[in-house]
Amino acid sequence: MHMPVLKRRWSVADLEDLPDDGNRYEVIDGELLVTPSPSLRHQDAALELAVLLREYLARERVGHVLVAPAEIVFSESRAVQPDVLVAPLVGGKRPESLQEVKRLLLAAEILSPSTARADRVTKRSLFRDEDVPEYWIVDLDARTFERSVPDDARIEVVDDQLTWRPAGAATALVIDLPAYFARVLDA
After folding, report:
1. Per-residue burial over 76-111, b = 16 or more CB atoms within 10 Å of its CB, e = otherwise
2. Is residue 59 part of a domain?
3. Among residues 102, 104, 182, which one has the least CA distance to residue 140?
């Protein structure tokens, strides 16, 4: 007689019981995602993107940029830590705690071999479900950004210039992608 294989449904509350071991723990619809510490190249890419967003948001005061680890809880079964994210302002000011962040203007993940499936499938679906206006995947090997929006199932792959204009902004952020990748990859 075979024993049934029980698949555990994880909740956000279960994350408190996990070790502080350098891994990133996220829960999406009851599934636990575990990501190892990022590489230096990954960190450089996230930092460079955060700097570009921070400079833009200093001019266009519509949001506040954060970098992982920054756990965003959408529900008791959905908590994620995007590599880079933009949270809307709260009362015209940046959020004072992550508990104030109930929605996002932008989420971005730096692709790595261990996260590719989760980033491209699970998280893309989650961010569409949560009506995050833009989700970017930064593919360092291909030197591209993959852009997803909630109301279009297609994925836009951009390799030259990425333009982002969140609601309420008077001007757009324009990222020169070859220049971005040259700074991140020293090439």
Report:
1. ebbbbbbbbbbbbeeeeebbeeeeebeebbbbbbbb
2. yes
3. 182
Taking only the tens place, the pLDDT of each residue in 149-166 is 999 989 999 999 999 999
- The reply to whether 5 falls in a domain is no
Residue-number span of the structural domain to which 95 is assigned = 39-185
pLDDT value at residue 1? 55
Q: Which run of H or E residues covers position 155?
A: strand 152-158
pLDDT averaged over 10-residue windows placed end to end, the chain, 187 residues: 67 86 85 85 96 98 95 93 96 91 96 89 94 97 97 94 97 98 92
Question: Considering the domain boundaries, does residue 27 fall inside one?
Answer: no
Structural domain includes residue 22: no
Number of structural domains, the chain? 1
Rounded CA separation 147/155 (Å): 6
Tell me the two tokens of residue 146. 């993959």
Query: What pTM was computed for the model?
Result: 0.89
For residue 122, the domain's CATH number is: 3.90.1570.10
